[in-house]
Amino acid sequence: MRQTAVAAGLAVMALAAAGCQSDKPAAQTSASPQVSVVTTPPTTPTKAPHKNKHVHRIATLVVRKPAPFRYETAPVTAAQLGKSWHPGCPVGPSSLAAVTMAYWGFDKAAHYGTLVLNRSVVSPVVTAFRSMYNARFPIRRSVPIAAYAGNDNRSMAADNTSAFNCRRAVSNGPPSWSMHAYGEAIDINPLENPYRLEGTVRPPAGAPYMNRSNVRPGMIVAGSAPVAAFAAVRWGWGGNWSSTPDYQHFSVNGR
């Protein structure tokens, strides 16, 4: 993958650190005022050879070759992490990395997105995302949560797939750090895979997707590509939580 993909991911964080506060979700295209995402052509059209030129004039077969999965990593700074990090967090910027990698979009095209991850989990996460990409599981967008000023509700409302965010766990138990605060958890397609706690659906617009028997694109259900991909690297899925399933959530220890 070209260096521009990583540069684009870091540019997203630099934008957030500079104070980008727009509440408008980014469109799934190559760019928006809020985020900057590099998009590569998903296919390389080629004309199939025809011996009969008259047949060739009538119909041309287009053979599409999928773009290969690629990724790169880069260090991050406190400034780039913006409001998603602050002194006192369980991990510092030196323990984190920006991982820019390919993902398959709802538009059936290849895109590049960036996750901020703990350096210790880069390898299994890349393996899982490669598997999802090869399975053509669609992801809406993936930008560091710094683009949303560290606000988890805004990121979920934008259907943004994200990882690191120094925040407390959203639970009905005693206060504790979320696994996101360690960079060891990922939320995928929050809109299609909401979390319901004590009657509240997060994000609210995800309420129609609480019917998990009506499987639509981007939904994570038992046997789906994300569940299989993360199980293969021994990560746990929040959809298996008995009382308050969190369908968007994967983490290194299942919490």
Provide structural commentary:
This protein has 255 residues and is α+β, with helices and mostly antiparallel strands. The chain has one domain. 20% of the residues lie in helices and 16% in strands. It is built from 6 helices and 10 strands; from the N terminus they run αβαββαββααβββαββ. The protein has helices spanning 3-17, 53-58, 78-81, 122-134, 152-157, 225-232; strands at 46-47, 62-63, 71-75, 96-104, 110-118, 185-187, 195-197, 200-202, 236-237, 249-251. A 3-stranded antiparallel beta sheet has the order 3-4-5, with helices on both faces. The chain has a 3-stranded antiparallel beta sheet with strand order 6-10-9, covered by helices on one side. Strands 1-2 form a two-stranded antiparallel sheet. It is globular, with a radius of gyration of 19 Å.
Tell me the layout of helices and strands.
Blueprint lengths: L2 H15 L28 E2 L5 H6 L3 E2 L7 E5 L2 H4 L14 E9 L5 E9 L3 H13 L17 H6 L27 E3 L7 E3 L2 E3 L22 H8 L3 E2 L11 E3 L4
Antiparallel strand pairs: 1-2, 3-4, 4-5, 6-10, 7-8, 9-10
